[in-house]
């Protein structure tokens, strides 16, 4: 699979929707994840990321403008022991609770499907990072409607053992802007990951569409120690 430039991928797509990136730094020492949200409606754009324990949650920037919290207010990132969960919805909690009961990532998501927001039926995208004794593996999942039909859910899981240094995978909800919005297709895209967290954060934020971008989260985790650094960028502040 060809390695793509995350900068080009984002600059050439005005509406990838929500996106998850997971990978490893070129020096092989850090696990990396990023999650961004975008919005076209007032309700979607009226959000910020705030830290919540070891994870983050979305919060209304102006509570007076919040009309429907059901699909916009959730915890995108939660940490369960040596696992970091990143998703685009409240399935973060489903995975957390399932894995806490010894279910696998895939089993935990069996109870969920795409979002009930017809005609888009937004895919649920999820990632899990597992760091233990100096080893690092990750997996990604997408639950999507079958060609826009609400009657059938297609479930895909992509697992990456001992991921290569300097690269990552990128999955997002929508192929591009549209009405209805077309779901992401294929396996997560292979992209380059830099050592420099600040530079990576700046690149991602600058590459997202100015009108539609809302918030960005980036975390670099030391594989040997589990220590991490986090960056949050909010358009509303």
Topology readout:
Layout: H1 6-11, E1 19-24, E2 30-38, H2 42-45, E3 47-52, E4 55-60, E5 77-80, E6 83-87, H3 91-100, H4 105-108, E7 124-132, E8 135-146, E9 149-161, E10 167-172, E11 189-192, H5 197-207, E12 213-222, E13 228-234
Antiparallel strand pairs: 1-2, 1-10, 2-12, 3-4, 5-6, 6-7, 7-8, 8-9, 10-11, 12-13
Features:
globular; mainly beta; Glutamine Phosphoribosylpyrophosphate, subunit 1, domain 1; six-stranded antiparallel beta sheet; 237 residues; five-stranded antiparallel beta sheet
Structural class call reads mainly beta
Annotated CATH homologous superfamily: Inosine monophosphate cyclohydrolase-like
Q: How are the strands of the largest sheet arranged?
A: 11-10-1-2-12-13
Tell me the count of domains: 1
Low-confidence stretches: none
The CATH topology comes to: Glutamine Phosphoribosylpyrophosphate, subunit 1, domain 1
Number of helices: 5
Mean pLDDT: 97
CATH C-level? Alpha Beta
The fraction of residues in strands falls at 35-45%
Main beta-sheet annotation: 6 strands, antiparallel
Termini separation comes to 39 Å
In total, the number of strands is: 13
Return Rg in Å: 16 Å
What CATH architecture would you give?
A: 4-Layer Sandwich
Q: Provide the helix percentage.
A: 10-25%
The topology string of helices and strands comes to: HEEHEEEEHHEEEEEHEE
